UniProtKB/TrEMBL annotation:
The chain crosses the membrane at residues 43-71, 77-95, 116-133, 145-165, 186-203, 209-227. Residues 1-34, 306-337 are annotated as: Disordered. Pfam families: Cation_efflux (PF01545), ZT_dimer (PF16916). It is found in: Membrane. It comes from Amycolatopsis taiwanensis. Residues 45-234 form the Cation efflux protein transmembrane domain. Keywords: Ion transport, Membrane, Transmembrane, Transmembrane helix, Transport. It comes from the Bacteria. GO terms for molecular function: zinc ion transmembrane transporter activity. The keyword ATP-binding does not apply. GO terms for cellular component: plasma membrane. SUPFAM superfamilies: Cation efflux protein cytoplasmic domain-like, Cation efflux protein transmembrane domain-like. Gene3D superfamilies: Cation efflux protein transmembrane domain (1.20.1510.10). This is Cation transporter.
Length: 337
């Protein structure tokens, strides 16, 4: 009785109506609106143009100067460019409407992009760490002045690219992944500038290898963060900062609610979470009114708008049999019988 789960056709229609009115899905970002998506694409494309142009020049100068720090920066910029391309592709895929077997659409393409960015950073970390240690042991000749000048130009390019991506929607883990790539590259260029100045002014060529190791450390930090956050979404963990037990206790404390079980909270993609639960209410209570009250609490206090609540009476009424005798997961009871 009053389950809150209409027949499939009605559910699909309800889903479309909620989505069109802006109340069905809790998008923390603007990817539900064409204008915002187009703006994201423009900012990402501008950053890509800056990075691609400078990367070619940096590889050339790095080879001439014999600088691992510059080449490592160029390698990092290559992953920057790849991360932006992935982000652009993911934004296009995520914007496609849900159809067929993909009931959420392709929204998780953004998370695939973020995870690919994180893994690429970790792989590059291993290679640059190896090369940096090797050059610490046997330092090659490095043209310090050339490294210094190129790194200064690199700082300017990365500041511009970082600004471009910061203007896009960073609540998306996909865009945040590209942003972290660019931001870490900016830090890397600062380290390379210092290394170039040291080599130029003192002749201490190991400074170049030390700068490359600093770059590797920054890559490891950013890469692990992206892999961890995207992994949480793939494993359908609750959003960071959301405690399912606390949510369950809050729901069961509402008027007429006797028990809450089969409670699941997960992220569909960054900025879009979902919840489902089975709720038992006191005999004779208005299931629809209780469900409306719970949806309001979830929406206003936990920013959960994509919710599916099955609401039944705590004891089966004649001819129904809606009582769940085998609940799964943590069971929250109010003490009201």
């Amino acid at each position: 009785m009053g389950t809150g789960k209409p027949a499939s056709a009605e559910l699909a229609r309800s889903h479309d109506e909620r989505s069109s009115s802006g109340h069905g899905h809790g998008h923390g970002h603007g990817h539900g609106h064409g204008m915002s998506v187009d703006a994201d694409r423009r900012w990402l494309a501008a950053a890509l143009a800056l990075i691609g142009t400078f990367m070619v020049a940096e590889v050339t100068v790095g080879l001439i100067a014999g600088s691992l720090a510059l080449i490592s920066d160029a390698g990092h910029m290559l992953t920057d460019a790849a991360s932006i391309v992935l982000a652009l592709v993911a934004i296009r895929l995520a914007a496609r409407p849900a159809r067929g077997g993909y009931t959420y659409g392709l929204k998780r393409a953004e998370i695939l992009s973020a995870q690919a960015n994180g893994i690429s950073l970790l792989v590059l970390t291993v290679w640059f760490t190896y090369e940096g240690i090797k050059r610490l042991i046997t330092p090659p000749e490095v043209e310090g002045l050339l490294v210094f000048i190129t790194a200064l130009v690199g700082i300017a390019v990365n500041v511009a690219a970082t600004w471009c991506i910061s203007r896009a929607n960073r609540s998306s883990l996909n865009v945040e992944g590209a942003f972290q790539h660019i931001l870490n590259d900016l830090y890397a260029f600062i380290a390379t500038t210092v290394a170039g100045a040291v080599v130029w002014l003192t002749g201490f060529t190991r400074a170049d290898a030390i700068a490359a190791l600093v770059v590797a450390a920054l890559m490891a930090k950013a890469g692990w963060s992206l892999v961890r956050e995207s992994g949480r979404i793939f494993l359908e963990a609750a959003p960071a900062g959301t405690d399912p037990d606390q949510v369950g206790r809050q729901l069961v404390a509402r008027p007429d609610v006797v028990e809450v079980h089969d409670l699941h909270i997960w992220q569909i993609t960054s900025g879009e979470s979902a919840l489902s639960a089975h709720v038992l209410v006191q005999p004779g209570a208005d299931c629809h009114a209780v469900r409306g009250d719970l949806e309001r609490v979830l929406r206003d206090e936990h920013h959960l708008r994509h919710t599916t609540l099955q609401v039944d009476h705590s004891r089966p009424e004649p001819g129904t049999g809606t009582h769940c005798d085998d609940p799964h997961g943590t069971v929250h009871r109010s003490g009201r019988a």
